[in-house]
């Protein structure tokens, strides 16, 4: 079983903001596999359950707001008895250049409040993640930056990054060794 989680904030107000890159990537994946999201009150999330390439796969968008994402994630992990090795979470990252992908086997939250809350609820950080760069904040108030929308110039770069990240998730579902996926997508594109 694979659990693929995109972190973001619910609602139209946040739909195309930098902080919603996780949602954008799993939305792109859902589009590629031709499936629609369903609301789950039990998990306070939008969810897709399917079988791809013989692998039971769950896509998840917690609707708890970013900083409480772990509440939804832990419910799904416990309900489906998902092994931490079969979880991958997609998030935005201020420390990476816009559009740069960084795939990790596990690691710290890197100051990301969504990951911090997931770590708290799972009592572990031993899950895979894809971080997508949104660049450094151009304003002193980081919240304004992450909750802001991409410029037209950034949008071209981000659209390609979303496509690459959703492709990386497809490889993950297909059980391609994670090191091979990392090697392919961690390379900086110029």
Commentary on this structure:
The chain has helices spanning 21-33, 69-80, 113-122, 142-146, 152-173, 178-185; strands spanning 2-6, 38-40, 45-52, 55-62, 87-93, 101-104, 128-133. It has a single domain (2-185), classed as Rossmann fold, CATH 3.40.50.1470. The longest helix is centred in the C-terminal third of the chain and has 22 residues, at 152-173. Helices cover 37% and strands 22% of the residues. Strands 2-3-4-1-5-7-6 form a 7-stranded mixed β-sheet, sandwiched between helices. The termini are far apart. The mean pLDDT is 94. The protein has 6 helices and 7 strands; from the N terminus they run βαβββαββαβααα. It is an alpha/beta fold and 190 residues long.
Report the count of strand segments: 7
Order of helices and strands: EHEEEHEEHEHHH
Helix content: 25-40%
Instruction: Give Rg in angstroms.
Output: 15 Å
- CATH structural architecture: 3-Layer(aba) Sandwich
This entry's quaternary arrangement is: single chain
Structural class: alpha/beta
CATH class: Alpha Beta
Shape: globular
Observed structural traits:
7-stranded mixed beta sheet, 190 residues, alpha/beta, Rossmann fold
Give me a quick take on this structure.
This protein has 190 residues and is α/β, with parallel strands linked by helices. It has six helices and seven strands, in the order βαβββαββαβααα. Strands 2-3-4-1-5-7-6 form a seven-stranded mixed beta sheet, sandwiched between helices.
């Amino acid at each position: 079983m694979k659990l693929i989680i995109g972190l973001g904030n619910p609602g139209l107000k946040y739909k195309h903001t930098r902080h919603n890159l996780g949602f954008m990537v799993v939305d792109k994946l859902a589009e590629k596999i031709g499936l629609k999201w369903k609301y789950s009150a039990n998990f306070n999330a939008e969810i897709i359950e399917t079988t791809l390439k013989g692998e039971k796969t769950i896509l998840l968008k917690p609707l708890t707001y970013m900083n409480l994402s772990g509440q939804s994630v832990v419910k799904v992990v416990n309900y489906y008895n998902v092994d931490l090795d079969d979880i991958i979470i997609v998030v935005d990252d201020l420390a990476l250049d816009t559009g740069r992908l960084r795939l990790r086997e596990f690691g710290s939250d890197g100051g990301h409040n969504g990951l911090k809350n997931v770590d708290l609820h799972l009592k572990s950080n031993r899950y895979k993640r894809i971080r997508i760069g949104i660049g450094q904040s151009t304003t002193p108030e980081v919240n304004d930056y992450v909750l802001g929308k991409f410029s037209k110039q950034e949008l071209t770069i981000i659209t390609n990054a979303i496509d690459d990240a959703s492709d990386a998730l497809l490889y993950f579902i297909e059980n391609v060794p994670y090191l091979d996926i990392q090697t392919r997508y961690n390379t900086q594109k110029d």
